[in-house]
Amino acid sequence: MTDRYQGPIRLVLFDVDGVLTDGTLYIGEHGEVHKGFNVRDGLSVALLRAHGIKSGIISGKSSAALDQRINQLGFDVAVTGQLEKTAAYARITQELSLEDSQVLFVGDDVVDLPLIGVVGQFYAPSDAHPLVLAKADHVVNAPGGRGVAREVAEHLLSSGGLSAEQAYAPLLADWGGLHAAQ
């Protein structure tokens, strides 16, 4: 068994509302004010990066709260405010010179359906829309906003030949060097 991820995936893209959040929007008189993100998911970006896998966001919504989280975690790519996600996906894969088979997308709602069958792997949270659940390649146990990204990262690394100990070894060896954020 190797100590490095050996699978085909080189980029994991996440939808935000319903995947990295529970889908609740907090709206104030001046627009969206807050989003609730799970601290477990934050570490997944560093975990993927430690194994040479890039991460990113494609979200139909944009907000200051989302921009803050994107910057805090250091996603490699982010497209926000684009409900039609296939064009954003095509730009990202072209810019990063990736084949569809090298990309995993995590989505939860009908706006994500056009990416099923395009990306190499499509994952969904347990509380995704029934049409998404029926077509996803893999459904994680966690509902949206409750550790979906961490579960996706761990499952991906496990399917790539790593034990949990091997997956987390780079983070445990060098927390500061990986700039892990929660």
Determine the fraction of residues in helical runs and give it as a percent range: 25-40%
* Chain-averaged pLDDT: 90
Count the beta strands.
Answer: 8
Q: Determine the CATH topology.
A: Rossmann fold
- Major sheet size, sense and barrel closure: 6 strands, parallel
CATH class: Alpha Beta
Oligomer: single chain
Overall geometry: globular
Distance between the termini: 29 Å
Please identify the structural class as seen in this structure: alpha/beta
Radius of gyration: 15 Å
Tell me the count of domains.
1
| Beta-strand residue percentage | 15-25%
Please count the helical segments: 7
> CATH homologous superfamily, by name?
HAD superfamily/HAD-like
What is the string of helix and strand elements? EEEHEHEHEEHEHHH
What topology, given as strand order, has the largest sheet? 5-4-1-6-7-8
Low-confidence stretches: none
What is the name of the CATH architecture?
Answer: 3-Layer(aba) Sandwich
